[in-house]
Write a structure and sequence with these properties.
By secondary structure, this protein is of the alpha+beta class. The protein contains seven helices and eight strands; from the N terminus they run αβαααβββαββββαα. Strands 1, 2, 3, 4, 5, 6, 7 and 8 form an eight-stranded mixed beta sheet that branches.
Length: 238
């Protein structure tokens, strides 16, 4: 029997061009937005919860009942350690900064024992009539190869340089389908994907392309988004 299958059919390319479900047309249908949850990790150790402190005190007293008693001469030897010209007096920095006292939310030098998140104030995608609103750094997905690249470009357009940032993973930390307000049906619903990025080795950024910005704690962040507070509370772990 003569085989009629052509060589071209047997050698179909194994690499298929990657396509995205996002439309790059000017229509607002099926739009995808990449948002960045840009956080600063705690600088100092958080205060111990009173219940945890009480348990630690109880555990210490319980262990002291069964500890071995050492001779007095042996214990006095430890008092002579560290006494010399090389000894340095250490005084810890205050936990409450000037930014805390003045409630300066534009400074990273506040709430040192908490995580801080960057919020921008200005017009953004889907804001009604170009009105300024509080939002995360974001960008509409268009010609980027991946959603992470879109998120990186969104953050770079705000802070100018990504050398002091670290994106946690390539996948988004969460997503939501945003429905427009009833009074503004010109823009259809769209999907917003959140990517986590962290501040690395700096305490100041030159933030631009917005009317205002703040560094807020998680509780303060939820106050800016009352409608999405339940979802954001589950997505952001702090």
């Amino acid at each position: 029997m003569q085989r009629t299958t052509s060589y071209a059919r047997l050698t179909r390319p194994l690499v298929i061009e990657r396509r995205f479900c996002t439309s790059t047309s000017k229509n607002n249908n099926d739009k995808i937005v990449a948002s960045v949850v840009f956080e600063r990790l705690p600088v100092v150790i958080p205060k111990i919860d009173p219940s945890v402190y009480a348990f630690q005190e109880f555990s210490l007293r319980w262990r002291q009942q069964f500890r071995r008693e050492y001779p007095e001469a042996f214990l006095k030897k430890s008092d002579t350690r560290g006494k010399g010209d090389y000894q340095i007096e250490f005084e810890p920095a205050p936990r409450i900064t000037e930014a805390d006292k003045s409630n300066n939310k534009r400074s990273l030098q506040r709430a040192l024992d908490r995580r801080l998140y960057l919020l921008l104030y200005g017009p953004t995608f889907a804001s009604p009539s170009g009105k300024s609103v509080w939002h995360f750094p974001e960008r509409v997905f268009a010609s980027e190869q991946t959603l992470r690249e879109c998120a990186e470009s969104a953050l770079k357009s705000v802070i100018g340089d990504l050398s002091h940032t670290y994106f946690v993973g390539n996948a988004p930390m969460g997503h939501m389908v945003v429905q427009p307000a009833e009074a503004h049906q010109v823009i259809n619903s769209f999907k917003r994907f959140f990517f986590k990025s962290q501040v690395i080795a700096t305490n100041k950024f030159n933030i631009g392309k917005c009317d205002d910005f703040v560094w807020v704690t998680k509780d303060e962040l939820l106050e800016h988004f009352p409608e999405q507070a339940e979802y954001l509370n589950k997505m952001i772990i702090s």
